[in-house]
Every structure is written in C-alpha cells, then in structure tokens.
Amino acid sequence: QVQVVESGGGLVQAGGSLRLSCTASGLTFDDYAMGWFRQAPGKQREWVSYISMGGKSTSYSDSVKGRFTISRDNAKNTVYLQMNSLKPEDTAIYYCAVSRATGQWWRVPRRVDDYANWGQGTQVTVSS
User: Fold this and answer.
1) Can you tell me the mean pLDDT for 66-73?
2) Nearest CA to 89 among 36, 41, 121, 21?
3) Is the separation of the CB atoms in 60 and 2 below 8 Å?
4) What pLDDT, in 10s, does the model give residues 39-69?
5) CB-based contacts of 90, cutoff 8 Å, min separation 6
6) pLDDT confidence of 71, banded at 50, 70, 90?
7) pLDDT > 70: what percent of the chain?
8) Would you state the pLDDT for residue 65?
9) How far apart are the first and last CA of the chain?
10) Is-contact 99 105, C-beta < 8 A?
11) Nearest to residue 22, comparing CAs of 123, 119, 114?
C-alpha cells in the first residue's frame, strides 16, 4: 500500500521561505515521477511542479517559476519543494503526488489524473 506524507507547511510572512518535504513508502520510489499541487479555498487543485524519476527533469507553473525549486533524494524516498519569495497568493494546502505510471513521461504531467497516490496535504499560509 502506497503512503504519501507531506510536512513542512506553516505560517510565514510575505517574502519568506519554507521547505516542504514529502516521503512516499510502499513503492519503488525512483521508478516514479513526482508532483506538487496546491489548492486554495474555493479554487480547483492547481499543478505547481514536477520532477522526473531520476530528478534530472523538472518543470514549474508560471506562477511559481523562479521562486520554487523541486528536488528529490531517492535514497530517502523523499521529494522537496523549496519555496522562496513567498506571496500571499501562495496560500493554499500543498499536496504531493506520485505519478500513475512508472518510467519516463514524454510530456510534463500537469493533470490531477496523471497522479495516482496523494498525501493528506500541508497548509501553507503567507501573511502580507
């Protein structure tokens, strides 16, 4: 059974930084691409970032590009999201997800249904 657990959320002032962590178990972690999504109150879940199974390929939404960095440590079954220069509009619940298929993706998996296993989410609140 695959389990995904996020941590690292919290309250931060605008301009500050947070690092989210996500650990997945019950799978061969380095066979899967990973993604981060977020969902603000009253809004749909939004794709934030993706990292390939080996970590060499990454992609970001336009809203976070240049401020967020995704990385992974396959030895620790963990993916990270370093968030810098945070803005109040970054306030959301952040979710980590495991891609629904193993191996290399030939497009960037941005859709919710590209992912099969999700964590419970971690709240990020950015005050102005």
Assistant:
1) 98
2) 41
3) no
4) 999 999 999 999 999 999 999 999 999 999 9
5) 38, 64, 83, 124, 126
6) very high
7) 100
8) 98
9) 40
10) yes
11) 119
| Angle at 98 (CA atoms; ends 112, 4), nearest 5 degrees | 115
Residue type, 12: V
**CA atoms of 103 and 111, how far apart (whole Å):** 17
Contact 82, 71 (CB under 8 A): yes
Q: Which two tokens stand for residue 62?
A: 């336009």
Which two three-digit tokens encode residue 38?
Answer: 């977020």
CA distance 111 to 88: 24
Going by C-alpha positions, the residue among 47, 35, 53 that lies closest to residue 102 is 53
Residue with tokens 């919290």: 10
Query: What single DSSP character describes residue 117?
Result: E
Residue in the structure block whose two tokens are 């992609």: 59
How many angstroms separate the CA atoms of 23 and 80, rounded?
9
Cβ count within 10 A of residue 4: 23
